[in-house]
Amino acid sequence: MNRSIGLGITIVFFLLIDLYFFQALKGAIRSFSVDNQRWIKIIYWVVPVVSLVAILGTFVFFPGYLSAKARTFVGTAVFLVYISKVIGSIFLLVGDIVNGIRWAGKKAMDPEGTKNVTITRSDFIAKTALAVGGTQLGLLAYGIISGAYDYRVRKVKLLLKNLPKQFEGMTIAQLSDIHSGSFYNKTAVQGGVDMLLAQKPDVVFFTGDLVNNESKELNDYFDIFKKVKAPLGVFSTLGNHDYGDYIQWDSPELKQKNLETLIQGHKMMGWDILMNENRSIKLGGEELGIIGIENWGLGGFKKNGDLKKALENTDHFTNKLLLSHDPSHWREQVLGKTNIDAAFAGHTHGMQFGVEIGDFKWSPVQYRYKEWAGLYKENEQQLYVNRGYGFLGYPGRVGILPEITIFELQRA
């Protein structure tokens, strides 16, 4: 019932956006011929009708008819259209508010002079809104075509205090947020794995969200990701999506079985999954501590991570590296509270949308997460947030591209 109410409210909101945006369209095409205006208006309203039929058919009347990827395609197409209209409407709203304030000011100063004057929207505002909406649509479409699989290798020198000489120069590759259920191009995914393997890392870290919800999503990509190997091991952990919390299950037992199957998938690929536990990498009589916890995140996310348990019997490690999916965990439980040298996280995806030019980076996700992409250091402790290998929801990336991180360990 709640889901139906939510869908109804969403549809009404979209229709209101359609009506509001339509006013701008009418103003922008006022100089066109009558026939051209008519056809443009017809085409404009065909899109909402088709969108409404697609959404109702896919998610209400025939929810099991289409595959998960087909449902994602339908949802994405509607999202692209309406997010562009919403952003364009924001410009319209700002313009209308400004016009309204100006009119109110004039009326206060000269009530008689504005008695028969109506508030009108300038062509400039209308055309700007249409241009902004169209540009946004173009950017998001480009992000699907070009950005989704545009993998980038980022090389980072990780300075660690008291690092034993045996580990200097050792390389660690990090992958995060694969979200195998979202992929639709096996060749591109394989290409990204080949890029990682070409770096010949000594160790690989995977920091969670192997699937969107179900363990079976890994099936089509199992043979690709099992190729991710390293001489000193592949260590992995779970992310919030790996628990199957975002879909309905017929029983708690099936949900638990799904998680167990996914954990077994890690092991079958040769990945050493760390469930609130630790391992050591040994070289020349020295040890490097690898700590891994289940997901722990602020803001309503699952808090299965048990750092205290994971740190048991680790006092002898000169250096400790932590795999923890959600970057909010670092500031809450690691920073200033442990002697962990560096933590590795993912989760944010950089919101798959933003700007990165040189050292400058911006994404809307930074208003939710203080640490959201790249390397952060406070006192002697560090956190690296990987931008993610895959994508979720929106099947593309604009500005914040998928990442393979290669760390070189150096003594600080």
Task: Note down, in words, how this protein is organized.
With 412 residues, the chain is α/β, with parallel strands linked by helices. It has 2 domains: 2-146, no CATH class; 151-411, Metallo-dependent phosphatases (Purple Acid Phosphatase, chain A, domain 2), CATH 3.60.21.10. 41% of the residues lie in helices and 17% in strands. The protein contains 9 helices and 14 strands. The chain has helices at 2-28, 34-61, 68-109, 123-147, 186-198, 222-225, 252-268, 307-310, 328-334, and strands spanning 152-160, 171-175, 203-207, 234-237, 272-273, 277-283, 286-292, 320-323, 342-345, 355-357, 360-362, 374-378, 381-385, 403-411. The strands form 3 sheets. The chain has a 6-stranded mixed sheet, covered by helices on one side. Strands 6-7-8-9-13-12 form a 6-stranded mixed sheet. Strands 10-11 form a two-stranded antiparallel sheet. β6 (277-283) and β7 form a beta hairpin. α1 (2-28) crosses α3 and α2 (34-61) packs across α3. The chain is elongated and about 90 Å long. The model has no long low-confidence stretch (mean pLDDT 90).
